[in-house]
Amino acid sequence: MSRLFVAIVPPSTVRAELAALAEPVPGVRWVPEDNLHLTLRFIGEADAAREAAFADSLAQVRVEPFILPVEGVGFFPSRGPAKVLWAGTGRAHTRLFQLRKQVDEALLAVESGLDVHSFSPHFTLGRLGTECEPKALARLLERHASFEAPPFRVSEFHLMASELSPGRPPAYAPVRTYALTAKG
Q: Does residue 125 belong to any structural domain of this protein?
C-alpha cells in the first residue's frame, strides 16, 4: 500500500529560500528542504491497482504552464491553536485553481468517494506542537511578514508517495510526473 498525494515541487532555489525561514523556535518541527511542496490533493492509502488507476487518470489533465508567486507566511487554523506554519502563493492564481480542479476531476473519475474540500494553496514550512508559544510564533511571522521567494514556472506536477517512519520526517518519492500542456 502506498500513501499518495498530488503535488507541485518547486525548484531547488525556491525550496532553499523556503527552508531559510527555519529558525530555532521551540515547538516547531521544520519540514526538510527536500520535502517542501504544494499539495494539490491528498489521496491517502492506495493499493497497486488504485495507484495505477489514479496515475492513468491524472494523465488526462491539461493546463498550460504558468508562473507561480511564492509570498507571505501564516499559520493554520486561523482559530484555536496554530498547527501548521506555511508560505503562500500570494493572490488567487487562475491556472493553479484550474490545475487543482482538473486533478480533482481526474481522481474523482477513479474514486467518487474522495474527500474534496476547499483549497488553500500553500507550502507547509513546519508543524507546531503544543509547546509552541504564541508569542514566539508571532515574532517569527512579524520577522518574515514581507517574505517573497522568486516566482517559478510550473511546468509539471507529480503523483507522489510518502513513507512514514516513527521519529523521522516522511520520505517522498515521485510515482509519476506529468508535464503541463495546453489543451488539445
A: yes
